[in-house]
Amino acid sequence: MSDILVERDGAIATVVINRPRIRNAISYAMWGELARVTHALGDDDTVRGVVYRGAGRQAFASGADISEFQENRKDTETSLRYGEQTEAAYQAIRHCPKPTVAMIHGYCMGGAMAVAMACDFRFAAEGARFGIPAARLSIIYGADAVGQLVDLVGPAYAKDILFSARTVGDREALAIGFIQRLLPPDELDPATYAYLRQVADNAPLSVRGAKLTVQLYLEGLDEARRERLRALARETFESQDYKEGTRAFLEKRSPRFQGR
User: Domain residues for 171?
Assistant: First the structure.
């Protein structure tokens, strides 16, 4: 069985990190597979939301598989190659045009934190634990991932998490804004999928545009990015979904959006 699984339920896809015997530690090959399946889901017009999760309830993922480091990160050359592989996975998730949710049971550590941060939302079960132990391994966490951590929790908490390499509990993670939902374990799965089904019922062009607008705002809205957003808005106004939304409102019924 694959270490990265993709499951489908209607318009919602689930990417499962599938190594429960070792807390879903992510191997070098798995980083590449995460990027590949994410690109494929982003290009699939039938997908309207993506969940990332770990197999079982012990861990979302314990991070990179450190047992591989003596071979795959043994010197500068291999470390740079490894970093390119992990960054490709993070970038694929960050730039996936579909709404993404990291659904977190148990431990979410190291590189798994970057996977979760690359998602639009992080929904967690009570008892979840978070941490970036890079300072215990003499590793400098990637600039984009650190930037996302700063955007989520602010510079002081980001420094605290990175300097101390401590484990952050579920309540603190919610209080500082790292996660957006904290639920009893039995309620996390149904609540996550119910939320994404609600999103999937909305106009895909609008959702995609909202996601891109937030992304470009955070990157800095120069004139080229503003024009890109204006072009996307024009595409929306000319779409069949815009006409359907207007008709449905006037006819007092739920719209049936097709994403075009």
Answer: 4-200
In this structure, the answer to whether residues 168 and 64 fall within a common structural domain is yes
Residue 1 pLDDT: 56
Residue 158 pLDDT exceeds 70: yes
Q: What pTM does this model have? A: 0.93
List the CATH number of the domain containing 94.
3.90.226.10
- 3-state SS of the chain is CCCEEEEEECCEEEEEECCHHHCCCECHHHHHHHHHHHHHHHHCCCCCEEEEEECCCCEEECCECHHHHHHHCCCHHHHHHHHHHHHHHHHHHHCCCCCEEEEECCEEECHHHHHHHHCCEEEEECCCEEECHHHHCCCCCCHHHHHHHHHHHCHHHHHHHHHHCCCECHHHHHHCCCCCEEECHHHHHHHHHHHHHHHHCCCHHHHHHHHHHHHHHHHCCCHHHHHHHHHHHHHHHCCHHHHHHHHHHHCCCCCCCCCC
Question: What integer best gives the mean pLDDT of the chain?
Answer: 92
Per-residue pLDDT reduced to its tens digit, 199-254: 999 999 899 999 999 999 988 989 999 999 998 888 888 888 777 777 877 777 88
Instruction: Please give the tally of structural domains in the chain.
Output: 2
